Recover the amino acids of this structure.
């Protein structure tokens, strides 16, 4: 299925996030503790995480990467994504805007406890790195047949 | 284009089509100029060629794109830095650019636009004669 990230696109989610950010700015810690590995809004690369009963999908929005520079590691349920985006500008060019991130990055995410580190799949397509981690069978909800 | 088709099929659910039209992100860009052209590079992760539109209307250059990613059914958002898949940004061009000859290329979610200067307006070195 070709998704439009619609799951992430709904108004409630947007609104909550906007409010959280605003509270963060004005009230500091009052909104409760932030994730110990969470990063400031606007950090490159932005990441979305989706979960279903079968798997957890991590989408890393990193356009213009050389996939060879990407380093992905999953230790238990701790996912580390490292990479380097090189931006080369012609030497004698006059630069007007430089907004695109350049350099090394590293992001660490805590995935749900039941992910299986042996079943990880990653692919890079149109500037999005998609990492799929299967969840362990045992914890999936099962339909019990009535005899 | 396919993008318009999507919009049409979604007209049924008003809220969604409205939120998709109104909410968009400004892609990060690099802009630089060399002797004969200006180059614009824009980060549009998830946007493939057929979902990307570059338009020149008068002296306005508009970049618009829709990101699409493979997402299995039944997936729920757990965490999101990105909330919208609609990219949009525009720039005003200046007269010395040859808007009829803009070259656009997209690779790995990065759009590269080359805007050449009109031939007669490209910088020329003026020889200073001694004597």
């Amino acid at each position: 299925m070709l998704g439009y990230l619609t799951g992430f696109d709904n108004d409630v989610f947007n609104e909550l996030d906007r409010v959280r950010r605003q509270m963060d700015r004005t009230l500091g810690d009052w909104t409760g503790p932030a994730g110990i590995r969470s990063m400031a809004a606007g950090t490159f690369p932005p990441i979305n995480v989706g979960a279903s009963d079968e798997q957890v999908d991590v989408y890393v929005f990193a356009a213009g990467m050389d996939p060879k520079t990407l380093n992905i590691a999953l230790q238990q349920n701790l996912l580390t994504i490292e990479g380097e985006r090189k931006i080369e500008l012609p030497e004698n060019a006059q630069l007007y805007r430089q907004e695109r991130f350049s350099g090394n990055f590293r992001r660490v995410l805590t995935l749900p406890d039941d992910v299986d580190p042996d079943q990880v799949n990653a692919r890079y397509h149109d500037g999005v790195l998609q990492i799929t981690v299967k969840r362990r069978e045992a914890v999936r909800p099962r339909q019990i047949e009535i005899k | 284009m396919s993008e318009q088709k999507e919009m049409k099929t979604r007209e049924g659910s008003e809220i969604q089509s409205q939120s998709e039209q109104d909410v968009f992100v400004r892609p990060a860009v690099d802009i630089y100029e060399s002797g004969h052209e200006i180059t614009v590079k824009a980060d549009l992760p998830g946007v493939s060629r057929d979902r990307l539109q570059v338009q020149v209307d008068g002296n306005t250059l508009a970049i618009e794109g829709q990101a699409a990613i493979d997402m299995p059914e039944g997936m729920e958002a757990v965490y999101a830095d990105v909330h919208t898949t609609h990219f949009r940004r525009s720039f005003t061009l200046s007269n010395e650019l040859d808007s009829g000859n803009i070259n656009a290329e997209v690779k790995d979610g990065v759009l590269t636009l080359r805007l050449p200067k009109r031939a007669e307006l490209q910088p020329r070195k003026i020889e200073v004669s001694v004597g």
Q: What stands out?
A: The mean pLDDT of chain A is 81. DSSP finds one helix and nine strands in chain A.
